[in-house]
Amino acid sequence: SSVDDPHRSSDAVALEMAVAVTKLIGVLIGMALVDRVGRRPLLLWGAAGCSAGMLLLCGASSLGARWLVLASMCLFILSFSISWAGLYWVLVSELFSMSAKSPAASVATALLFLSGAATDIAFLVLLRLVGVATFAVFAAIAAASGVYVWTCVPETKGKTLTEIHAMLTATREAPAEQGGTVHVHVT
Q1: What is the pLDDT of residue 4?
Q2: Model confidence over 135-148: pLDDT tens digits?
Q3: d(CA 110, CA 117)
Q4: Cβ within 8 Å of residue 98, ≥6 positions away
Q5: Biggest CA pair distance of the chain
Q6: Are 79 and 49 in contact (CB under 8 A)?
Q7: Kindly report the CA angle at 9 between 11 and 135, in degrees rounded to 5?
Q8: How many CA atoms lie within 13 A of 58 on its CB side?
Q9: Which among 34, 77, 172, 187 is least surrounded, fewest beta carbons within 10 Å?
């Protein structure tokens, strides 16, 4: 068993350490960039990196290339940690009015944890049904999240909460560089 084999145990620890260090580096980079680069660019690049990481993981798993499996996992984790992991909480704190913030943040947090649990279950079911193609499914979901950000998520960098809420309560047209016309109605 791997417990009795010190080489397999040390390999597992080394892999876990690589993943943990990648996550830490990603969170630190995300903290450093969020107010310089903005929320939308980080989310868009994060979606692209997560999707690329999952596609690489699909290919690497199919080939049995252990080093590429680790590299693709680290790419996914780095991309997610720089963007989605921390920015979720930033956007939740910015997008709700003060009167709605407490209940809305509670619902958003509950949905985050419920969707995480559903993802865990779906991953295991998909893995049994389609094998490593599961990673391609998650790559498509990551890409779709980028499309969602491109079309629906406003940039809040450098704006006060009052400016953000004024922007969200009015119907607005998105500039062409944001992908065309987007109408946002939030009350």
Answers
A1: 52
A2: 999 999 999 999 99
A3: 11
A4: 161
A5: 64
A6: yes
A7: 55
A8: 18
A9: 187
Question: Residue type at 64?
Answer: G
User: Mind spelling out the 3-state secondary structure of 135-150?
Assistant: HHHHHHHHHHHHHHHH
Q: Which two tokens mark 124?
A: 């295991």
Intra-chain end-to-end CA distance of the chain, in Å: 59
**DSSP letters of 85-144?**
HHHHHHHHHHHS-HHHHHHHHHHHHHHHHHHHHHHHHHHHHHHHHHTTHHHHHHHHHHHH
Mean pLDDT of the chain: 86
The model's pTM: 0.80
- Calculated CA dihedral for residues 117, 90, 178, 175, nearest 10 degrees: 140
At which residue do the structure tokens 């809420």 appear?
Answer: 165
| Number of neighbours of residue 40 by Cβ within 10 angstroms | 17
Cβ–Cβ under 8 Å, residues 181 and 174: yes
DSSP classification of residue 180:
S
